């Protein structure tokens, strides 16, 4: 494609992008595609000859879009959002155009130095300890893997990188049973074995019980195991439960455990001074992760990973083959040594655009709106005789279920809510997801989409109410 054609098509696409965002509510939130729908429309082989942009774009509209779930739709209430914003999209366009690979300072000094400053801005804006160092990782899964590998190195006197884990006592990791599945995956990748991830019971609010943590550690010590790390959740994925950080930190200190804090979603709330209590005790953490790509209006992927001791991180990951020597080692950050991948995208640029475009106050305003919407929805659930709140709502996720007064069989309730969710999502008018809390099937509604307004949450509640009644009539429950 010649530059002139690029210019023309880029302008067309920007118009399309603005129209898309303006008219996004015309699309079904959740893709209505069936398995194999798109594959059946795609040629089995790549074309031998280049094709016209118009043809490629027509297929994008007609073949690809139907298979898209619209994460930027204001009625997207599922999982946690993967938010975007106009400022972030513009930065992504520039990033794609520059095509920078920022593995070392020299391969784009601005990419490295902007990342350094953005991590400081975010650290200070969220009230994190002033001596911490941050680095952008692709995802929280990767950040937590970095934490586990660093903890493994520290616990073995940096021997596991040298000679493996063959001569080590069993290294043990503790986390609540509500912990995100990425921790189990990371433990497997780190070569520790998932049997050595010990799940700790939670209380009625789905937060880790410190006494149970202490018991598990004591029992492991009696068996000759090596307690190495505890993962505390600030905002679990199931219900945004907040683990008691001060109590966990005290235990971590007593037994010499690495304390990793996973605040992948909830960490963004710390931009609000009135929510900083959720990370009380954070100064005792060894590592911390939160995802601006979830709730902070920054396109996926962008995870902020912080450590209290940079040297341990660097000692775990540093490599210096001849072809990567630049003569500037020690003077500048070479972020390839701060994580797993060598190659790195210029992710700091989108943070810079977002933070400057909204300002901290602009972001705070949006977060407060989201938090208030969730409280409104929670009140509707609580004041309805046939609905039930299933977990506290410390932030903007409401866990609830339909519970008609004449049904009490737990399996029946689970099936009913599963059916309700399927019908709601098939409507295309909203998208929610579910989880199980202590065996109960629970609907999750997150009020955190960048563009969500009061009317979308009100409409969601009306739909849920109406659909539950329709379902009850269908099943002759009433
Ligand atoms: C979403 C989430 C993760 C995983 O995030 P990725 O960036 O997709 O890896 C980890 N922990 C918690 C608590 C989460 O909510």
Q: Which features would summarize this protein structure in a list?
A:
alpha/beta; Aspartate Aminotransferase, domain 2; 7-stranded mixed beta sheet; 4-stranded antiparallel beta sheet; 42% helix; binds pyridoxal-5'-phosphate; PyrdxlP-dep_Trfase_small; PyrdxlP-dep_Trfase_major; lyase
Uncertain residue segments: none
User: Under CATH, the topology of the domain at 100-345 is which?
Assistant: Aspartate Aminotransferase, domain 2
CATH homologous superfamily descriptor of the domain at 100-345: Type I PLP-dependent aspartate aminotransferase-like (Major domain)
CATH class of the domain at 100-345: Alpha Beta
Radius of gyration: 24 Å
Q: Biggest sheet, open or closed, and with what strands and sense? A: 7 strands, mixed
Report the strand count: 11
CATH architecture of the domain at 100-345: 3-Layer(aba) Sandwich
Describe this structure in words.
- By secondary structure, the chain is α/β, with parallel strands linked by helices.
- It has a domain at 100-345: Aspartate Aminotransferase, domain 2 (3-Layer(aba) Sandwich), CATH 3.40.640.10.
- The chain is 42% helix and 12% strand.
- It contains 14 helices and eleven strands.
- It has helices spanning 3-22, 53-64, 86-98, 109-125, 140-155, 160-163, 181-189, 210-222, 245-255, 292-295, 310-317, 348-383, 410-426, 454-474, and strands at 133-137, 171-176, 197-200, 226-233, 258-262, 287-290, 303-307, 387-389, 397-402, 433-437, 440-446.
- Helix 7 links the parallel strand 2 and strand 3 (197-200).
- Helix 3 (86-98) packs antiparallel against helix 12 (348-383), helix 5 crosses helix 11 (310-317) and helix 12 (348-383) packs across helix 14.
- The radius of gyration is 24 Å and the shape is globular.
- Pyridoxal-5'-phosphate binds next to helix 5.
């Amino acid at each position: 494609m010649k530059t002139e054609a690029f210019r023309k098509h880029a302008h067309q696409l920007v118009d399309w992008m603005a129209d898309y965002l303006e008219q996004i509510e015309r699309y079904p939130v959740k893709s209505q595609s069936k398995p194999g729908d798109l594959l059946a429309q795609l040629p089995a082989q790549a074309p031998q000859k280049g094709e016209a942009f118009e043809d490629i774009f027509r297929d994008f509209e007609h073949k690809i879009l139907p298979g898209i779930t619209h994460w930027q739709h204001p009625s997207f209430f599922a999982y946690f959002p993967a938010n975007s914003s106009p400022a972030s999209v513009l930065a992504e366009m520039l990033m794609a155009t520059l095509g920078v690979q920022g593995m070392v300072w020299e391969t784009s000094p601005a990419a490295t130095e902007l990342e350094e400053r953005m991590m400081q801005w975010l650290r200070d804006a969220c009230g994190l300890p002033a001596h911490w160092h941050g680095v952008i990782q692709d995802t929280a899964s990767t950040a937590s893997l970095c934490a586990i590998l660093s903890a493994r190195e520290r616990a073995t006197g940096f021997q596991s990188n040298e000679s493996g884990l063959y001569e080590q006592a069993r290294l043990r990791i503790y986390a609540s049973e509500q912990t995100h599945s990425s921790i189990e995956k990371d433990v497997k990748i780190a070569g520790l074995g998932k049997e050595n991830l010990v799940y700790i019971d939670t209380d009625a609010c789905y937060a880790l019980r410190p006494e149970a943590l202490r018991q598990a550690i004591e029992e492991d010590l009696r068996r000759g195991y090596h307690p190495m790390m505890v993962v505390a959740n600030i905002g679990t994925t199931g219900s945004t439960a907040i683990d008691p950080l001060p109590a966990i930190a005290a235990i971590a200190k007593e037994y010499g455990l690495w304390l990793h804090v996973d605040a992948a979603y909830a960490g963004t709330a710390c931009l609000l001074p009135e929510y900083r209590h959720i990370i009380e005790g954070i100064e005792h953490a060894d590592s911390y992760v939160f995802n601006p790509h979830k709730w902070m209006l920054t396109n996926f992927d962008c995870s902020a990973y912080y450590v209290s001791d940079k040297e341990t991180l660097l000692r775990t990951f540093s490599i210096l083959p001849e072809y990567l020597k630049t003569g500037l080692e020690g003077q500048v950050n070479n972020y390839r040594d701060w994580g797993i991948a060598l190659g790195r995208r210029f992710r700091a640029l989108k943070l810079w655009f977002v933070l400057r475009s909204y300002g901290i106050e602009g972001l705070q305003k949006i977060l407060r709106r989201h938090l208030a919407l969730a409280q409104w929805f929670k009140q509707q659930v609580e004041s309805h005789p046939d609905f039930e709140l299933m977990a506290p709502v410390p932030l903007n996720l409401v866990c609830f279920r339909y519970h008609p007064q004449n049904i009490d069989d737990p399996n029946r309730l689970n099936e009913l809510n599963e059916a309700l969710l399927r019908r709601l999502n098939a409507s295309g008018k909203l998208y929610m997801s579910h989880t199980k809390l202590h065996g109960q099937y629970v609907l999750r509604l997150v009020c955190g989409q960048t563009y969500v307004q009061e009317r979308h949450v009100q409409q969601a509640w009306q739909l849920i109410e109406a659909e539950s009644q329709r379902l009850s009539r269908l099943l002759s429950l009433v």
